[in-house]
From TrEMBL:
This is TetR family transcriptional regulator. Residues 22-82 form the HTH tetR-type domain. It comes from Cystobacter ferrugineus. InterPro entries: Homeodomain-like_sf, HTH-type_TetR-like_transc_reg, HTH_TetR, Tet_transcr_reg_TetR-rel_C_sf, TetR_C. Keywords: DNA-binding, Transcription, Transcription regulation. Residues 1-23, 206-245 are annotated as: Disordered.
Amino acid sequence: MTQNDDDAVAVEPAQPGRKRDHSRDAKILDATLDVLAEVGAAGLTMDLVAARAGAGKATIYRRWTSKTELVIDAVAHMKRNQVDLKHLPDTGTLRGDLLGLFKPQSIEESERKLKIMTGLASLLSQDQALAEAANAAVVQPWAEAHFALMRRAVERGEISASADIDTLSQVIATMGAYRALVQRKPFDLAFLVSMVDGVILPALRRQPTEAPPDSTGRRPVPTTSRVDESPSPRRAASARKRSKT
């Protein structure tokens, strides 16, 4: 993301001893997300953000020296409403806990988040810092919450201690990001239920020693040791005597 010439502005240095007013940061970041949802990252300008936030462009530049920095902080700002790791659901079952994390959203809010992620899609592969911010804001909070819930399920004996919770705790959040960025579909309750019941729980409960299915979907039949069918020496001698008589 590059800074346009028409966004250049002379910024007066902050006066010595004057503290930055952080109360306006959240409003500016929310305005940035609104603009991202409307015009995407390519169409975002400091003028649009300033107008939406009701702030001067110089005020924004005193906080963020470029649009890239502003967008990165705005994406990180999305994390605030993701999940509270200190207050996770405790329903007594892993399924109930995973579904209990879901927060019903209005159609407008779901569409807004979807538009924000769509607006960022073209830049994530070009800007490593932005990609990391998006991962930290969208994927990691949910992955950490799912890991905590799965670990608790292991402790109460609901799933095996050998289950690969490191990997499986990232599946729902990663697929949710793919759904938003690539398929451009919202993360709704129906999608979450299908992931929990169709992917996560079966994978957690599968025995590690169980052979995976082959290309036809069939599982190999376990091999058993064959009984030695060769006759014993005594039986062989008895058989020779009978053949001579």
